[in-house]
Amino acid sequence: MADYQPLDISGWCNAGVSLLGEVPEVALGRQTFRGLPFLIGAEDGAAGDRCYISFGDSNEGVTVPINETAQRVVVAHRLLETKVTTGGPLGIEVAEYVFHYADGGEERVAIRERFEIGLQVEREFMPRLCCHADAAIKKAAFVVENLTVNTGAMRRNLDATGGG
Asked: What angle do CA 117, 121, 127 make, to 5 degrees?
């Protein structure tokens, strides 16, 4: 068994891609986010009208049984509205997950804006930032791999500057 297994929640999905507004293209079906497998909607990705769980203005929760021993549970979630861009506070609780254990115990996990969930703008910015960081690391590795050190010149420079 793989370390991470996507959980089929399509039976609880009550909203489609139209919930996101004008988004150019939405990936459905089996997806990988940050190296982890997820299942968005149905396995075949065909049910674009029922691929998300939406609560709208409701405070009612949804119970999704895992029915397996899980060491970790990773949830892909998205915040559709924010007041942060107009001066609203950071860190307000926007959701809560409650994990119920087989022994009757439970764990409550608060989902706070800008901590456990962020803005769409950040989601679009971070991959580009990672690509730039990757390119910089590759260039630095090339420089280090091809570096020729003139130990005599280095010693003279260290002596002339007092080692700094």
From this structure: 90
| 118 pLDDT higher than 70 | no
Q: 3-state DSSP helix/strand/coil percent for the chain, to nearest 5?
A: 30, 20, 55
* Residue 12: partners with Cβ closer than 8 Å, 6 or more residues away: 53, 62, 64
* Residue 5 · residue 42 · CB < 8 Å: no
CA 36 – CA 12 distance, rounded (Å): 21
pLDDT at res. 1: 46
Buried b (16+ CB within 10 A) or exposed e, 112-148: ebbebbbeeeeeeeeeeeeeeeeeeeeeeeeeeeeee
What sign does the CA torsion over 51, 57, 60, 61 have? positive
The beta-strand segments (E) located in the chain are 29-33, 36-40, 93-100, 106-112
| pLDDT tens-digit map of 46-103 | 767 788 888 877 778 888 888 888 888 888 887 778 887 788 888 888 888 898 888 9
Which pLDDT belongs to residue 69? Answer: 84
CB 66 within 8 A of CB 74: no
Distance (Å, rounded) from C-alpha 56 to C-alpha 5? 28
